[in-house]
Design brief:
37% helix, single chain, eight-stranded mixed sheet, Rossmann fold, 10 strands, alpha/beta, 237 residues, two-stranded antiparallel sheet, oxidoreductase
């Protein structure tokens, strides 16, 4: 006869609820490229949700000016100071400055949770098109340049116009989050969920980031054709 102790020890561990996400309300979020449209919009939404936010820029004065304009306790600093003082660092710099920015901040980003939301895109007379970096994606480039950081990818498909619009109460979209460590992805999912209307959805490992980044080229075409600010919503979830 099997004892109760041996029976309990052989029982499978209960599966973790994928919607059981950590509390991230006390974490400070830094936004590298926070003076650009996407970074500034993310900073605004997170600060509006009650998150502590630091805007980073190459010039501290420019970052502080953007922070003062946003208000809500947002701070401004140069990129290095922003990275040092933040628990989570969102990379929202232009693609052509992506590698250069991260190389310069390797030490400041050591051990940090880095969220790359950069979309490598080109534009010509036919519209937007995806660029495939040598590493496979912007997120994979970040991981290669920051071997001592915890790199994830998220926030790619958000309209900068909607993010910055104070009349828009909710951003009706899902945020696909990719990364190698599920716990890190859960933190980013929870951060996305702080913004009303958003859900953070785990969407695989960094090797799949190129498809996520490239889809923005399609959204640009949708938005131009229909004069909208389309996002992504996953069904049956």
């Amino acid at each position: 006869m099997t004892s109760s102790s041996s029976a309990s020890s052989s029982s499978p561990a209960p599966k973790k609820d994928p919607w059981d996400l950590p509390d991230v309300s006390g974490l400070t979020v830094g936004v590298l490229g926070g003076t650009g449209d996407q970074g500034r919009g993310l900073a605004y939404r997170l600060a509006r949700a009650g998150q502590a936010v630091i805007i980073g820029s190459r010039a501290a004065e420019r970052a502080q000016q953007a922070a003062d304009e946003l208000g809500m306790g947002v701070e401004g600093a140069d990129n290095a100071e922003c990275a040092r003082r933040s628990d989570i660092v969102i990379v929202a710099v232009p693609w052509d400055g992506h590698a250069r920015t991260l190389e310069a901040l390797r030490e400041e980003l050591r051990g940090k949770l880095v969220v790359d939301c950069v979309n490598p895109l080109g534009f010509d007379k036919k519209g937007a098109y995806a660029i495939r970096p040598e590493e496979g994606s912007a997120a994979q480039q970040a991981a290669a340049l920051l071997p001592d950081s915890r790199v994830t990818a998220a926030f790619h498909h958000l309209s900068a116009v909607l993010l910055a619009d104070p009349e828009t109460e909710k951003i009706d979209t899902d945020v696909m989050v990719l990364g190698e460590v599920r716990e890190d992805c859960a933190i980013v999912q929870a951060l996305a969920g702080r913004i009303p209307g958003m859900r953070g959805i785990f969407a695989g490992r960094l090797r799949n980031a190129h498809q996520i980044e490239s889809l923005v080229a399609n959204l640009v075409s949708v938005n131009r054709r229909y004069k909208v600010h389309a996002g992504i919503r996953l069904t049956d979830m």
